Each structure stands twice: as structure tokens, then as C-alpha cells.
């Protein structure tokens, strides 16, 4: 099932499938947010923004609007 990164539940994993290259900042790509990489939603800030994701062994914070542009395949 395809979701966007902002739709994952805390602790849920997914594999990056696709993203809108015009809306995803280059810094996220440089930090390893590339298709085929497994990510996990680590935390959601108290007011829902930002989100913390685990990618390539580290925690990365991103805005919810950025996370919504990254499509993931649910990893079971």
C-alpha cells in the first residue's frame, strides 16, 4: 500500500518509492532520502510538525509538508 511519509504512524516503516523532485529539497536527497531506502517514522512533534524519521542510521527532522511529497511503500 502506498502512503506518503506524513501518513505513517510512529514506529511504522516504509520504503521510499517516489517523490516530487520539484518540492523535495536537495538537502533531503543528499542526506539519503532516495528511492529504495527504508525509513521509519520516529516521532511527531507535539503540534504535528516537524516529523522525525530514521534514515540510514540517523534521525532526520522534516516539515510535514515536505514529508507529504515523499511516497513510501508500506514495509511489513
Task: Give the topology, please.
Elements lengths: L1 E3 L8 E7 L6 H5 L7 E7 L6 E5 L2 E5 L1 H4 L2 E5 L2
Antiparallel strand pairs: 1-6, 2-3, 2-6, 3-4, 4-5
What is the compact description of this entry?
This protein is mainly beta. The chain has helices at residues 26-30, 64-67; strands at residues 2-4, 13-19, 38-44, 51-55, 58-62, 70-74. The mean pLDDT is 86.
Question: What are its keywords?
Answer:
mainly beta; 6 strands; 12% helix; 76 residues
Textual characterization of the structure:
The protein starts with a strand and ends with a strand. By secondary structure, the protein is mainly beta. The mean pLDDT is 86. It has helices at residues 26-30, 64-67, and strands at residues 2-4, 13-19, 38-44, 51-55, 58-62, 70-74. It is 12% helix and 42% strand. The chain has a 6-stranded antiparallel sheet.
Total beta-strand segments: 6
Residue-averaged pLDDT, rounded?
86
How many helices? The count is 2
Question: Major β-sheet, in short?
Answer: 6 strands, antiparallel
Tell me what portion of residues adopts beta-strand conformation: 35-45%
Please list the strands of the largest sheet in the order they lie side by side: 1-6-2-3-4-5
First-last Cα distance: 10 Å
Helix content: 10-25%
Instruction: Return the structural class.
Output: mainly beta
Order of H and E elements: EEHEEEHE
Shape: globular
Low-confidence stretches: none
Radius of gyration: 11 Å
Amino acid at each position: 500500500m502506498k502512503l506518503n511519509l506524513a501518513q505513517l504512524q510512529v514506529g511504522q516503516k516504509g520504503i521510499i518509492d517516489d517523490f516530487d523532485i520539484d518540492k523535495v529539497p536537495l538537502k533531503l536527497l543528499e542526506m539519503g532520502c532516495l528511492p529504495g531506502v527504508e525509513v521509519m517514522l520516529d516521532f511527531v512533534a507535539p503540534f504535528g510538525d516537524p516529523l522525525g524519521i530514521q534514515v540510514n542510521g540517523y534521525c532526520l527532522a522534516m516539515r510535514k509538508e515536505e514529508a507529504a511529497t515523499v511516497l513510501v511503500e508500506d514495509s511489513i
